[in-house]
Amino acid sequence: MSVKVSLRPIVISGPSGTGKSTLLKRLFAEYPDSFGFSVSHTTRKPRPGEVDGIAYHFVERSTFDKLVEQNAFLEHAEFSGNCYGTSIKSVQDVAEKGKTCILDIDMQGVKSVKNTDLNARFLFLAPPSLEILRSRLVGRGTESEDSVAKRMSQAEKEMEFAKTGAHDEIIVNDDLDQTYADLKKFIFDPSA
Ligand code: ADP
Ligand code: 5GP
C-alpha cells in the first residue's frame, strides 16, 4: 500500500531488545513504497538472518574509521563495544526515492541528530519494565551473557534520557499489536 506521509524523517530509539526492529519490519512490509530505512554501518558481527546492506552495512573497524575520517557520517557512536554510524548517503538514498526516512539509533545518535538540519521527529520505544526487557533480550537468543549485561546497563541510561523530554513521543511496547497501532498513529497523525 502506498500512502502520502509527512516527509520529515523519523528517529526511533529505545533500549536494545525493546522491539524496534520487530515493529519496523512490520511497517516496511505494510508500506514498502512509503518508508525507507537508513541502513547504518556497524562493526558488530551480523546476527543469524541479518543481511549485509539491509539490516546494516557490516564493516571492519578500519573501514569504519576511514569513513569517520572522510566525514561520511551524519552521526556515529560507540555502543556496547561496537561502532555504529548513520552515513549521509544512507539518508540521501531514502530521500531520493521519495520515501520517508526512518532511523533506528541510540541516545547518542539522537543527541547528534538534534544538532543537524535533518528536522526529524523523535519516538522513544520503551519496554514495559527492565525485567521484561531482559527477558526479550535473552529470549531473542542473539546475545552472550556479557552482551545482555552491557545492553541492560545502557538501557537504564536510555530510560533516564527519555525522562528529559528529548523525544516527541514515548510509546511503551507491551502488546505488540497495540504498539504497532500507536506507532502508525505517531507517524501518520503527527498532531495527535
Ligand atoms: P530491538 O530491535 O529494539 O533490539 P527486537 O525487535 O529485536 O528489539 O525485539 C527483541 C525481542 O523481543 C524479539 O525476540 C522480539 O520478537 C520480541 N518482542 C518485540 N516486541 C514484543 C512484544 N510486544 N511482546 C513480546 N515480545 C516482543
Ligand atoms: P543492535 O546491535 O542491537 O542492532 O543495536 C544496538 C544499538 O545501536 C541500538 O540502540 C540501535 O538503535 C543503535 N544503532 C543502530 N544503528 C545506529 C547508528 O547508526 N547510530 C547510532 N548512534 N546508533 C545506532
Write up what this structure looks like.
This protein has 192 residues and is of the alpha/beta class. The protein contains seven helices and nine strands. It has a five-stranded parallel sheet. It has a four-stranded mixed sheet with strand order 4-3-6-5. Helix 5 packs antiparallel against helix 6. The longest helix has 18 residues, at 145-162. It is globular. The two termini are 22 Å apart. Guanosine-5'-monophosphate (5GP) binds at residues 13, 16, 40, 44, 75, 77, 79, 84-86, 104-106, 108-109.
Summary, kept brief:
With 192 residues, this protein is α/β, with parallel strands linked by helices. It has 7 helices and 9 strands, in the order E-H-E-E-E-H-E-E-H-E-H-E-H-H-E-H. A hairpin with a 2-residue loop joins strand 5 and strand 6 (82-87).
Give the secondary structure arrangement, pairings included:
Elements: E1 10-13, H1 20-30, E2 35-37, E3 41-42, E4 57-58, H2 61-69, E5 73-79, E6 82-87, H3 88-96, E7 100-104, H4 107-114, E8 121-126, H5 130-140, H6 145-162, E9 169-172, H7 176-188
Parallel strand pairs: 1-7, 1-8, 2-7, 3-4, 8-9
Antiparallel strand pairs: 3-6, 5-6
Helix pairs in contact: 5-6
The chain binds adenosine-5'-diphosphate (ADP) and guanosine-5'-monophosphate.
